[in-house]
Design a protein that fits this description.
single chain, mainly alpha, Methane Monooxygenase Hydroxylase, Chain G, domain 1, 10 helices, 9 strands, about 35% helix, about 10% strand, globular
Length: about 350
């Protein structure tokens, strides 16, 4: 195994001694009668110092603590199985037997070989289970639309409320209050808004996009697309992120949108709705990755960690990062933490409070 810089992630025995000879990965450590396969996945507290019965039968394994090493910048995502560096028999077993003949990975083997993957020349990307994003609690919403004091977005006539807002609190009281307020402001706008000019070409293009899945006789199911989006986000935009993995993730999302998503198939209105949700998820995933690239610092407040920028909440990054799409180009901006200005003056001016 190697990281994105080519640094090897070594195999070690139960004493954490590096195993340089591949044949030793299937043999007991010195002084060990036998080992139990896959015991290495147990908590890292099982060590030579503990002398527990579990440690006595620990098998050879990849170096522990990959997550912590990635967080410290010692290991850089993504990780790869360096197949070309392996002995031919090992390489053939891993790719030709494990990947090709393990039921659920057959489709991956077929897609890789059809795309020109050659295990004698190419490395196989690998994602350790311990790096999957973990559940965590956020005390406030860490992203959303940036409205004005009337809860109006920068798109004419579009208002927002609840968790859709940058400062969404994520509770019923906030949703009810902002929803009622946004509705009142939207109604006031509708009374004075000029008659809209309909762009017929835009409407027809959007109708063609929306109804495309029900006009196909077959294609990809929305569940498959959702799985693909989830895997890309798990692998390239997990708890610990870096520039290279995020850029690779954006590339995969674009390919997913242009290829698989273009074959979405719906049999009824319910499935059509799900298809459209999935297409929106691709856009949201791209937004998250662009925002993650733009914030070049880690943040405890945002539960945000970048291994290539490990400093936590430096003063120069005590600000909001904004993203917007202009003519198919993502534009990055920033706002001060208290961008809303004077609470007293704005409440009096916008909320009808004297």
């Amino acid at each position: 195994m190697v990281d994105a810089t080519g640094k090897e992630i070594p195999w070690v025995d139960r004493y954490e001694n590096i195993i340089s000879d591949i044949s030793q990965r299937s043999r007991p450590a010195p002084g060990q009668k036998f080992f139990l396969p896959h015991l290495f996945v147990l908590p890292s507290g099982i060590s030579a110092s503990s002398k527990t019965s579990l440690w006595k039968y620990a098998d050879p394994h990849l170096l522990r603590g990959i997550r912590k090493r990635i967080a410290k910048g010692e290991v850089v995502l993504p990780l790869y199985a360096d197949l070309p560096s392996m002995p031919e028999d090992e390489r053939r077993v891993i790719f030709g037997l494990h990947v090709a003949q393990d039921g659920r990975t057959w489709i991956g083997y077929r897609m890789l070989t059809q795309a020109g993957f050659n295990p004698d020349r190419h490395m196989l990307q690998f994602y350790p289970v311990e790096m999957l994003p973990r559940w965590r609690t956020l005390f406030f919403n860490s992203g959303g639309l940036v409205p004005d004091w009337d809860l109006r977005s920068n798109l004419e006539g579009l208002y927002a409320a609840g968790e859709a807002l940058l400062t969404g609190a994520g509770n019923a009281a906030h949703a009810c209050a902002t929803g009622r307020y946004a509705g009142r402001k939207a109604a006031e706008y509708a009374l004075v808004a000029p008659k809209p000019i309909i762009d017929r070409e835009q409407v027809e293009n959007e109708k063609a996009r929306i109804y495309a899945p029900v006009n196909r006789r077959n294609g990809m199911d929305w569940k498959e697309l959702n799985i693909g989006i989830c895997q890309i986000m798990q692998h390239y935009c997990g708890d610990i992120r870096n520039e290279e993995s995020l850029k690779i993730g954006l590339k995969w999302l674009k390919e997913l949108e242009q290829e698989e998503a273009a074959t979405l198939y719906a049999r009824n209105p319910h499935e059509l709705g799900r298809c459209l949700e999935s297409l929106s998820l691709i856009t949201l995933a791209e937004m998250v990755m662009h925002a993650s690239l733009a914030r070049k610092a880690s943040s405890a407040w945002l539960s945000f960690q970048r291994s290539d920028y490990p400093e936590v909440d430096p003063s120069e990054w005590h600000k909001w990062i904004t993203t917007r799409l202009e003519r198919d180009q993502v534009k990055i901006g920033e706002l001060p933490i208290d961008y809303w200005g004077s609470l007293k003056e704005n409440y009096e001016a916008h909320c009808g409070l004297g």
